[in-house]
Amino acid sequence: MKVYDLKELNRITNDLVLNPFVNHYWELFSSEVEALKNQNFSIEILIDKAFSPDLEDERINIKGLKKTADMEKVNMDTAELNTNSTFDTLKTFQTFVVGDFNRFAYESALQFCNPKESATPNPLVLIGNKGFGKTHLAIAILNEIRQKLPERLSIYINAADFLSQITNAIITNKRNEFFAQFKSFEVLIIDDFQCFKDREVSQGMLVDILNSHFQNQHQVLVTSDIPITEANGFIHRLASRLNGGVTTLIENPNFESRFRILENKAIGRSISEQVLQFIAEKDELDIRQMEGFLSSLIAHSELIQKGIDLDVAMGTFALFK
Predict the structure, then answer these.
(1) Which of the residues 14, 46, 307, 314 has an alpha carbon 20 to 30 A from that of 75?
(2) What's the order of all strands across the beta sheet hosting 41-46?
(3) Domain presence at residue 79
(4) What would the pLDDT profile of 100-124 be if each residue is shown by its tens digit?
(5) Are residues 188 and 164 both part of a single domain?
(6) Which CATH number belongs to the domain containing residue 185 in this structure?
(7) Do 106 and 184 lie in a common domain?
(8) Are residues 270 and 245 part of one domain?
């Protein structure tokens, strides 16, 4: 039987079998574990061999120890990396194609970068389907603020990474350190916020962080595939906090906007207008998929050192799907 200390749980969460446990079930009994933090205890997880036949033993035991001074520090590697990095410098306001479908989101994002103006939206919530440019705008904001207001401590973090760090803070009893770390940021950008759906314990911890941000007039931006409402699995306190600012919807782009996005990406490439029109007409592709398909064509074009005609594009698209 494998036995792990509770403080080692973060290390083993990369295991395929334990990921579902940590991501979906830990919060259900975290309060009970918290009550036992000064006692010795153990949690035994039984794994169906049919689910994971390569396991040495179907029993995995997580052993809880009394709190000690050498407990691991909350893993803030992701936050530190995001604080110090320049991110994707190609994702800027200048490279963002604006159309009727995203104009309000674009204008709101520009305003967000001017915190001294009274009309600055805070919090700013960007809602839209996957691949519609929310991440591009979020990183464009980060790049703009770091260039024009380098004194403002800013962070971009994906919600899945944020949740992982919250879980680690709970497990290692380092909530105070976690709060202090994130409350220090003057600009907090959380991408893919839908990952917080139905995660009530984590949402409650996030509300405490947001309250501190707003009290200190710090800025908050979140992007999400779904509206942040109670009906969608968000607690009332969190939904009301985030909906108290400006919420913008990035709609489905029309053909003209899709073509302009492709045209912008194809600058300097040997891609005909006919091919760009062919791709833009594929409504089943979101913007990210559309750009990915174009990138595949460009790579193919450079490999064979020839331009891409419509026949090649149509044949490649059949494989791309």
Answers:
(1) 46
(2) 2-5, 59-64, 41-46
(3) no
(4) 999 999 999 999 998 777 678 899 9
(5) yes
(6) 3.40.50.300
(7) yes
(8) no
Identify the CATH number of the domain in which residue 305 sits: 1.10.8
Q: What does the block give as tokens for 91?
A: 């994702």
Alpha helix locations (H) across 149-199? Answer: 159-171, 175-183
Write the burial class of residue 139 (CB in 10 Å: 0-12 exposed, 13-18 middle, 19+ buried). Answer: buried
What b/e string do you get for 182-218 counting C-beta neighbours within 10 Å, with b at 16 or more? bbebbbbbbbbbbbbeebebbbebbbebbeebeeeeb
**Confidence band, pLDDT 50/70/90 cuts, at residue 272:** confident
CB atoms within 10 A of CB 291: 18
DSSP string covering 83-94: HH----TT-SST
Helix (H) or strand (E) holding 12: helix 9-12
Do 143 and 231 lie in a common domain?
yes
Does residue 132 sit in the same domain as residue 58? no
Give 271's Cβ-side CA count (13 Å radius).
Answer: 25
In a domain, residue 86? The reply is no
Same domain as 245, residue 261: no
Q: For 225, what's the count of Cα atoms within 13 Å in the CB-facing half-sphere?
A: 12
Report the side by side order of strands in the sheet with 246-250: 154-158, 187-191, 219-224, 124-128, 246-250
What is d(CA 289, CA 77) in angstroms, rounded to the nearest whole number? 30
Residues 2 and 24 occupy one common structural domain: yes
Q: What is the pLDDT of residues 139-161, one digit of tens each?
A: 999 999 999 998 889 999 999 99
- What predicted TM-score, i.e. pTM, was given to this entire model? 0.69
| 32 three-class SS | helix
Cβ-Cβ contacts under 8 Å for 218 (sequence gap 6 or more): 185, 186, 187, 188, 212
Distance, in Å, from the CA atom of 40 to the CA atom of 252, rounded to the nearest integer, reads 54
In a domain, 81, yes or no: no
Q: What is the token pair recorded at 13?
A: 């969460």
Q: Are residues 97 and 207 in the same domain?
A: yes
**74 assigned to some structural domain:** no
3-class SS of residue 246: strand
